[in-house]
Design brief:
It is a single chain. The protein has 582 residues and is α+β, with helices and mostly antiparallel strands. It contains 14 helices and 16 strands. The strands form 5 sheets. Strands 4, 5, 6, 10, 11 and 12 form a 6-stranded antiparallel sheet that branches. A 3-stranded antiparallel sheet has the order 3-2-13. A 3-stranded antiparallel sheet has the order 7-8-9, with no helix packed on it. The longest helix has 31 residues, at 434-464. It is flat.
Length: 582
């Protein structure tokens, strides 16, 4: 590779793959879908990287390499190590559960709630109900597995008039084509979702490409019919009352026949005069349909924090892909070595070989149970022992797994390959999991503002749809709270909470929050605080009642008289001692 051909970009960690040179090349067997005229040239490396990573996840990396011209790659042994690494990292990222939380909602049940706490609690309850209806936990797992494996994932929101709520859908990042402008730092003002639809001879349909476009632009003069928020200079959105905006989001959903497209008519240059626009069930044509919102309802999730000037994330497999190749090669060698170890190669000297009566030629001997070979007086049998080589290969597999665990930062303890006897204490285990803690912290940080953006869009779509209970006003900040990714010493946390709360250095709300983070089955912190306080008040009332009853009984009165006599005697004795002292 010449110096002028060296490419350093977000996908340069795949440059060592000869198959990457096939991306976009006419006649490519590895990436035939990338030779289509509508695929933008600058997206070829990203789409090729997604296919390479998906092949590792499905144990098909050898097949992809064979399609690129490496005939020996079909013998490659792939035993699911890549998929195991992805699923392990995904499990630690997600934790045991995820919850939607709104800032300030935890103080709604306080004796003196903070301003806005009741509203925050109401919004939190509505968002959690929406999450249950839209199967948010399931959608998050769909999106996050793609992000961990491929480096990117895409979630799209849309208002459903029939369900009266925003719907959530996860798309393959290979369908995602944002149009970045120089002034678009974080969020593109135009986004394409595009994919190819194969021909269907039975239905009489030809091969075509479908493109769904979200684009921000100025509001057309006059606005949409029935637009009560339109003003002379633009539109007032319910989440920004009192402010007029001239920006809205347009939706276009169309299809093009592949045979109608010419060279140079890429995704962002498709001829609109040859487009066939889709139609909604109510008969509305999806050609620059005004969605009545001032944002693009598409959320791109990156697995890692992108470098400056970049927008794409990095797969968990990126840094260890060559180690996975080495592991597959070692597994292939181990398989060959185990064959000669289980069925060894045997050399015979002075053996009497049986003769085939039909051909008169000596028959080949086979190594099998119960076989008897006749040897002469000077006969000898030697077996080739390959077990030492097999042991070396197995040791190399363990070495490669340790390197993969260390370089991916999932760690041997995280992958479960660390022996329990190698961990002398819980503190040592915590140190061993240190790189994993940093990895998960970085991955969750990369997603923090994306899920905040998602819930902001959900609230605004509810407001734009004029759903019941959602009034005009500022959008409240909401986030996705993750459970701890590693096991915690729940007993130690409980003891610490009890001591701190009993000493009065922690509030009840903070104590319950600590128990919640430690993994105790508390569904709602505010409700748990309310139940604890109600139980404490009930127990206090019972004790007061028992005290009152005890004071009114004859035994209690007699005991009070006896205690009075004793006190009087004690006071008399004290006076006598005082007088004698004088």
């Amino acid at each position: 590779m010449g110096l002028r051909q060296l490419v350093i970009d977000a996908w340069s960690w795949l440059n060592y793959k000869p198959v990457m040179a096939e991306a976009g090349r006419p006649g490519s067997r590895a990436f035939p879908e990338l030779t289509k005229t509508w695929v933008p040239p600058h997206e070829l490396r990203r789409l090729a990287a997604y296919k390479v990573l998906a092949s590792y996840d499905n144990n098909q990396a050898g097949q992809l390499a064979a399609a690129g011209g490496d005939a020996s790659a079909m013998e490659r042994r792939e035993l699911g190590d890549a998929a195991n690494l992805v699923d392990t990292a995904l499990g630690y990222l997600l934790g045991s559960d995820q919850k939607v939380t709104v800032e300030g909602a935890e103080h709604a049940d306080d004796e003196t709630p903070t301003p806005g706490a009741a509203e925050a609690a109401a919004v939190q309850d509505r968002l959690r109900k929406w999450a249950d209806k839209e199967l948010l936990t399931f959608r998050v797992q769909q999106a996050e597995r793609a992000a961990v494996l491929l480096g990117d994932s895409v979630m799209v929101l849309a208002w459903n008039p029939e369900k009266q709520r925003p719907t959530l859908r996860v798309y393959d990042p290979g369908f995602f084509f944002p149009q970045w402008d120089d002034e678009d730092e974080d969020f593109p003002s135009r986004v394409h979702l595009a994919w190819e639809l194969p021909a269907d001879d039975d239905a009489g349909l030809k091969a075509r490409v479908r493109r769904v476009t979200y684009e921000l632009g100025p509001i057309s003069e006059g606005g949409e019919d029935g637009d009560e928020t339109a003003a002379a200079g633009g539109r007032q959105y319910p989440w920004e009352p009192g402010r007029t905006s001239n920006v809205t989001c347009y939706l276009t959903d169309a299809e093009w026949l592949l045979e109608d497209l010419k060279n140079g008519e890429t995704l962002d240059r498709l001829p609109m005069d040859k487009a066939s626009f889709r139609v909604r069930p109510d008969g509305t044509e999806l050609n620059r349909l005004d969605l009545m919102i001032d944002f693009v309802p598409v959320v791109h999730i990156a697995n890692t924090i992108p470098d400056g000037g970049e927008h794409w994330g990095r797969s968990i497999l990126a840094r260890v892909l060559q180690a996975l190749d080495e592991l597959a090669a070692t597994d292939s060698d181990s398989s060959a070595a185990s064959a000669t170890t289980g069925t060894p190669i045997i050399g015979l000297a002075g053996a009497r070989l049986p003769v085939d009566r039909a051909t008169g030629k000596p028959q080949e001997l086979q190594v099998k149970a119960g076989a008897v070979w006749q040897l002469g007086e000077t006969g000898r049998m030697d077996a080739l022992d390959t077990s030492p080589q097999l042991a070396e290969l197995r040791a190399r597999v363990d070495h490669l797994l340790e390197r993969i665990a260390a370089n991916s930062r999932v760690t041997a303890a995280g992958l479960g390959t660390l022996e329990a006897t190698e961990v002398p204490s819980g503190y040592a285990l915590k140190l061993a999991l240190g790189p994993l803690d940093a990895l998960i912290g970085m991955m969750r940080l990369a997603r923090e503002h994306k899920y905040r953006l998602l819930f902001k869009m959900v609230q605004r779509l509810y407001q734009a749809g004029r759903a019941e209970g959602w009034t005009a006003g500022e959008t409240l900040p909401a986030r996705l709270a993750w459970a701890p990714h590693t096991p915690t010493d729940r007993g130690a946390v409980l003891e610490e909470v009890v001591k701190a709360y009993g000493a009065g250095v922690l509030s009840l709300e903070t104590a319950v929050a600590m128990l919640l983070e430690a993994g105790y089955p508390i569904k709602d912190a505010s409700q748990e605080v309310e139940r604890i306080r109600a139980k404490a008040e009930q127990e206090a009332a019972v004790r007061m009642a028992e005290t009152a009853v005890g004071r009114g009984s004859p035994e209690a009165e007699q005991g009070q008289e006896s205690r009075g006599e004793v006190d009087q005697v004690g006071r008399s004795g004290e006076l006598e001692r005082t007088g004698s002292g004088r």
